[in-house]
Specification:
The complex is a heterodimer of chains A (283) and B (306). Chain A is of the alpha/beta class and 283 residues long. Chain A has a domain at 2-133 and 245-282: Rossmann fold (3-Layer(aba) Sandwich). Chain A contains 9 helices and 9 strands. Chain A has helices at 2-11, 64-72, 109-116, 148-158, 163-177, 192-203, 222-238, 249-255, 273-282; strands at 39-52, 81-94, 98-102, 124-129, 134-136, 210-214, 241-245, 258-263, 266-271. In chain A, the strands form 2 sheets. Chain A has a 6-stranded mixed sheet with strand order 5-6-7-3-8-9, sandwiched between helices. A 3-stranded antiparallel sheet of chain A has the order 2-1-4, covered by helices on one side. In chain A, helix 4 crosses helix 5 and helix 5 (163-177) runs antiparallel to helix 6 (192-203). In chain B, helix 4 crosses helix 8 (145-173) and helix 6 (104-130) runs antiparallel to helix 10 (212-226). In chain B, 69% of the residues lie in helices and 1% in strands. With 306 residues, chain B is mainly α. The chains are: A alpha/beta (283), B mainly alpha (306). The interface between A and B is large, with 73 and 52 residues. Strand 4 (124-129) of chain A pairs antiparallel with strand 1 of chain B, so a sheet runs across the interface.
Chain lengths: 283, 306
């Protein structure tokens, strides 16, 4: 898929019909691939509404009478709250883009990533992508009671690898995580740092066309952090487009060539990392 | 890049006046919707590609499930055995449900083990989506992989309990296995097809109706009583309650009762069974499997919402 996109971008390079060319400034010493290429992700007036359960306020606690009157009046369950997390976001990402997403807690960053990955259905609007974007992270598929060994295999399969690929990557994952003989023990016996390292090692073992990274860098000790930053850089270079959500603005400024600032589910600013981050720090 | 306000975003989006709408741009570059439901044959093919994940996930769940209890996987056998013991005392001895049934212990045990298989699959299936939202919101795979993995997990457990059941039947009836026992895998295959279909359907219902998990135990209890696990439907309904024959026939035609009766027919010597029981078994297997997959697939793109 990646090769195909590359080819396409060469063919379509002559077409001048590319918006917001002026926004592109490359602060990095090594600029990523030219952004005047093919779009890989198009987000068109996206709204995401998802449901949260169990958020009852005090006065309407679940007693039977309340539940019954609610049923009779045909009202929805109060335990179920709808959260309008993303409210009309529109942007186009191009091949070679590394887009940082910044914003306060609850501004809809993770939700936006999940929508781009095709994991959360849009309430209205749409997301178009080239190939299958993937979130970096397999935590949800792993089981604490199982050994590291079993979890590596399980995690790789969960990401859609074939048995041959799993065999090929297994040693690399163990090496990279640096957990050594602990791989034979259940993950519940690991220290939190070791667990995080193994999880990162598993999830970064696969290459992706469009990659979405959600705060993955904040794991492990200093040494592993360095290693993982290196790995992210590699992945970024092999992937077509990268989205990065992180609270560490330094990381975003170093790795991204474009930053989107989300505020309360809307785009507040979109453009050059230095300018957006400066404005974000002020506001 | 002079106006660092939300106007920038708007300018890129709606304000791209004179330019093609984004949906056209997407089409021109061959971009597809991130969350489109694949066509049904493609969906089944994707599911087949994920078979390793499904199998590994099922095995892993089985390993991790009992890792904290001392008796471990023995509970898979102990649970239906203890249940059968309670029902034997309650209905067989105290309430006299035994009636004229020959080989009552074998009759009860077969009913209990066969029913438990379907019951556990359906109950697990109902939680397979709603209990795995974080997984669904993190990774991309055909969602039917989850109810399927849960059904396979139950199938793996069944292998052990079927072995125990056969030993117990031989001990309690004193009759040796016949060639007819070769039909056992066929019944189990049919029942598994039904279980997969039912748990797929329940998975979708359980994902949107949260009260389903509270309601299920009662539905299951009712189903247990209606399936003649510890009494003979014919004897109870027609002969002692004097209800018309069609009531008994409807009860016999329910999927659980069909599989139980078919299995009893194989395992227990001289057990009277409606001759059309196997038709009902095949019908439920095919119908449930086809309907379950179709019904589950229809909501594929919505499971992430919760």
């Amino acid at each position: 898929m990646a090769e195909l996109t590359e080819e396409l971008s060469q063919v379509k390079a002559e077409e001048p019909n590319v918006p917001n060319k002026d926004v592109r400034v490359h602060p990095n010493p090594e600029p990523p691939a030219p952004t005047t290429g093919t779009p890989t992700v198009i987000v068109d007036d996206l709204h995401i509404v998802y449901r949260v359960y169990g958020a009852t306020s005090d006065h309407e606690k679940g007693n039977a009478v309340h539940a019954l009157t609610r049923l009779l009046k045909r009202q929805g369950r109060p335990q179920m709250k709808e959260v309008h997390a993303v409210k009309g976001v529109t942007f186009v990402a191009y091949h070679g883009d590394a887009i940082g997403i910044v914003g306060r807690n609850g501004s809809g960053k993770s939700t936006l990533l999940r929508a781009i990955a095709g994991l959360l259905p849009p309430h209205s609007g749409s997301v178009y992508t080239d190939g299958q974007p993937s979130l970096l992270g397999v935590n949800a598929a792993l089981m604490r009671e199982l050994t590291g060994e079993r979890n590596i295999v399980l995690g790789c399969y969960a990401m859609g690898m074939t048995p041959a690929q799993v065999k090929e990557k297994y040693d690399e994952i163990v090496d990279f995580s640096g957990i050594g003989e602990f791989v034979q023990l259940p993950m519940s016996t690991y220290s939190s740092g070791m667990g995080a390292r193994l999880r990162f090692a598993i999830s970064s073992a696969k290459t992706h066309d469009v990659l979405l990274i959600d705060e993955a860098l904040a794991t492990g000790d200093r040494e592993f952090r360095k290693k993982s930053e290196q790995r992210i850089k590699q992945i970024r270079e092999s992937a077509g487009t990268v989205f990065l959500v992180a609270h560490d603005l330094r990381v975003i400024e170093e790795t991204c060539n474009r930053v989107i600032w989300l505020h309360k589910g809307k785009i507040k600013m979109d453009g050059d990392p230095k300018e957006v981050i400066a404005a974000y720090n002020k506001g | 890049m002079s106006q660092p306000e939300s106007a920038v975003a708007d300018a890129q989006a709606g304000g791209r006046s004179g330019q093609e709408p984004l949906s056209k741009l997407a089409k021109r570059y061959g971009l597809r919707r991130a969350i489109a439901r694949p066509r049904f044959p493609a969906y089944l093919r994707q599911l087949w590609e994920r078979r390793h994940f499904i199998m590994t996930y099922a095995t892993s769940r089985n390993v991790s499930k009992y890792s904290s209890s001392a008796l471990g996987q023995l509970w898979q056998v102990l649970t239906p055995l203890l249940n059968a013991a309670i029902y034997y005392v309650m209905f067989g001895l105290i309430l006299g449900g035994q009636g004229n049934i020959e080989h009552y212990p074998a009759f009860l045990l077969t009913g209990m083990f066969v029913f438990t298989y379907t019951q556990r699959s359906v109950t697990a299936g109902a939680k397979s989506i709603s209990g795995n939202l974080s997984l669904i919101r993190a990774l991309h795979f055909p969602r039917a992989a989850l109810p399927l993995a849960y059904a396979i997990q139950e199938l793996q457990q069944l292998a052990i309990s079927m072995g125990i059941l056969m030993v117990l039947v031989v001990v309690s009836t004193g009759a040796l296995p016949t060639w007819f026992w070769l039909m056992i895998p066929v019944v189990l295959l049919l029942q598994t097809m039904f279980n997969v279909g039912a748990s797929l359907a329940m998975a979708r219902m359980g994902s949107s109706m949260r009260d389903m998990n509270q309601l299920l135990p009662f539905i299951m209890r009712t189903w247990l009583y209606a399936s003649g696990v510890f009494f003979s439907i014919q004897e109870k309904v027609v002969e002692s309650l004097h209800m018309p024959q069609w009531v008994a026939n409807i009860m016999y035609a329910n999927p659980a009762a069909s599989y139980i009766e078919f299995m009893r027919d194989i395992l227990i010597p001289e057990h009277p069974v409606p001759t059309w029981a196997w038709v009902s078994c095949v019908f439920w297997a095919v119908f449930a499997l086809a309907f379950g997959f179709w019904y589950f697939w229809r909501a594929e793109e919505r499971y992430g919402r919760g």
